Every structure is written in structure tokens, then in C-alpha cells.
Amino acid sequence: MTDKPDVRVERDGEILVVTLDRPQANAVDAPTSRLLYDAFAQLRDEPALRVGIITGAGDRFFSAGWDLKSAAAGEAPDADYGPGGFAGITELFDVGKPVIAAVNGSAYGGGVELWLAADLVVAADSAVFAFTETRLGLVPDAGGMVRLPNSLPRALALELFLTGRRFTAQDALGWGIVNRVVPQEQVLTEAKDLARTICESAPLSVRAVLEVVDAAYGRNAKDGYAVMRSGLPTYAQVATSDDAKEGARAFVEKRAPTWSGH
To answer: Is the sign of the CA dihedral 242, 12, 198, 4 positive or negative?
Structure first.
């Protein structure tokens, strides 16, 4: 385990677990954002790592969002959050590996935007969320206004932004923006189980799925096909890869495949 102020990073086989640990509410300031970026860059850059998990310490808060104490002390909304933007990942578009948000507790403002930036979400059944920015004279510009309207009807997204009303993990599950809701004490275990299942798939195939889905997201089928066939580098490798050959051999031989990532 690597311990740094406010962020803990632990390897669990092919999984990198990143824990935001800032009592009392896991709020995020600019230095913490840069530490989180370092962790996600490690996930991106180390071939042996297959899946990342972002979670919060404790059992009450995943993250309360932007650290308003730091704001009151002079940290500006456009402070230097590092190459990944707020919380290290909201503007990091080249991880190339799945990130699972293990949402262990409630999240507000930028804390919701942090888990929206993940690819998959496991949330505690007791968690509640809200976009609190407009109540503070701010706007949800750490990805909320960009990502949420792509996943929810415009009217619903606007209601959440403009009123700041709370919504539950069960609400989010019903809206399709959370994958699983489990008891709080099972959140990290469930996220790790999901990560290990992903690790059973071919690494190149996983990266190619992320590449195509991200590139084609929000487009109609015709335009999506055009983007997919436009020379996306990872997708272009899959059909003739060593792993594609290994997958076919393993199927015929009725054994588990041994992936090379090539």
C-alpha cells in the first residue's frame, strides 16, 4: 500500500484501489486532486493493472465535493487541479481501463461528479446525493452538466441541477446511472468482485470496448459505425490479436484462456 496525505493507493492483484481519506467528509481540494490524478495515471500507465476502484474512507461520505474550507481560504474554482481536472479523473479521458466507483456513502456536488466520471458504479443502499452547486452560487462544471444530460432525460437532469434536490442510490439505480446497490459494508467487496470478473476478459478487448463506446457515445447507429470504423487504434488490433487467437483456442480446448494483452 502507498500512503500519501489524503489519498491511499493499494494494489490487489490486477486491481488498483484508490481511497479518498479526508475526514470528516472526504472533500476535495486542488492538492488532493493532483494526488488522485497520480493514482489514476498509475492505473493508466502500468500494464499489469487492469481495473481501478475509487472509494471513500469511512461509512458516511463518498465525497462532499469541493472543499469549501479551502475555497473560503482562497482556493479559486479554476485552481490548478492537475492534468485530470477536479478529483484527478473528471477530465482524464485516456485511462483506457475501467474505473469502478465504490460509492460507500453520500456524495454532494463534485462528489457526484467524481462517481459520474467512473465507468461503473456500485453504491451503498443508504447513500444520498445532490448537486448542491447552484445553492452555493456555483455550477456543476466538473462534468455534471456534460455527463448527466447524456444519461438522463434533459428535464430530469435540469431539475437536479437547478433545485439541488436530493436523490437516493435506489433512484440512481432506477435511472440507470448506477450499476448495483448493496448494503454499505458490502460496497468495496462488490466492487472488487466486479473488477475481478472484468479481469477474466481479454485486456485488449476491454480497452477496445471502452474506446469504441466513448468515441461513439450519443451518436446514431450510422454515425457510430463510421466512428468505429474510422481507425480507432485499439479496436483495429482486436480481430487479428494474439488474444483473439487464444480465445478461440481456449474455447475449442474447453479451458480458461491465458491472455497476453496483445
So the answer is: negative
